[in-house]
Amino acid sequence: MTLQGRWYLFTAAIVLTGTFVGVFSLSNYSPSYVLTKTRSLASCTPTEGTIAIVADDHGYNDSISHGAPANPWPVVSVKSGDLVNLTFCNLDAVEAHGFAIDTYFDRGVILSPGTAYQVSFIAVQPGTFRIFCTNFCTVHKYMSGKLIVS
Q1: DSSP assignment of 68-97, as one string?
Q2: Residue 142: what pLDDT?
Q3: Whole-prediction pTM
Q4: Which of 140, 49, 48 has the alpha carbon at shortest distance from 100?
Q5: What is the mean pLDDT of the chain?
Q6: Are 117 and 37 contacting, i.e. CB atoms less than 8 angstroms apart?
Q7: What is the distance between the alpha carbons of residues 77 and 52, in angstroms, rounded to a whole number?
Q8: What are the backbone angles phi and psi of residue 34, rounded to the nearest 5°?
Q9: How far apart are CA 117 and CA 89, in angstroms?
Q10: Is residue 79 exposed (0-12), middle (13-18) or buried (19+ Cβ within 10 Å)?
Q11: Fewer CB atoms near the end CB (10 Å): N or C, the chain?
Q12: How much is the pLDDT for 46?
């Protein structure tokens, strides 16, 4: 894919499967501006180069079994300047869940069961940013991941 005539190469192809790893890295790119794009999706269909964050009755990407909230999960690691494509999927059969990222997607979104949302941005501000649920739900306290921009 290109942005202002430059090519991006992802070091990992992320595909939604039955098991989800949770730690990802993307290659570096130095943009001259920040791109932010959001859109609603009819279903959870992450594409190659997209990081999927799945919400269900086990938290984000099974964060309960990974020790959340003491150990935030998933952990998304990128480099400053990376194009970050996230697909947030609510695979819970009955409950709405939310998704936001401090600084990068503050306004967040609340999704009804079976829906998805895509967020794309260029990570220009280094630091550690909280990924969190914006909707009080039964597994709310376990829905706490982090984005690390180095």
Answers
A1: TTTS-S-EEEE-TT-EEEEEEEE--SS--E
A2: 84
A3: 0.72
A4: 140
A5: 76
A6: no
A7: 13
A8: -100, 130
A9: 7
A10: middle
A11: N
A12: 73
The Cβ of residue 5 has, within 10 Å, a number of other Cβ atoms equal to 5
Nearest 5 degrees, angle CA 103-CA 110-CA 42? 110
- Tokens linked to 129: 């940013």
Most trustworthy range by pLDDT among 6-15, 20-29, 73-82, 114-123: 73-82
Burial (0-12, 13-18, 19+ Cβ within 10 Å), 92: buried
41-86 pLDDT tens trace: 666 777 778 898 999 999 999 999 999 889 999 999 999 999 999 9
Q: Quote the tokens at residue 26.
A: 């993307």
Superfamily of domain 9-14+21-149: Cupredoxins -  blue copper proteins (2.60.40.420)
Number of H helices, E strands in the chain: 0, 13
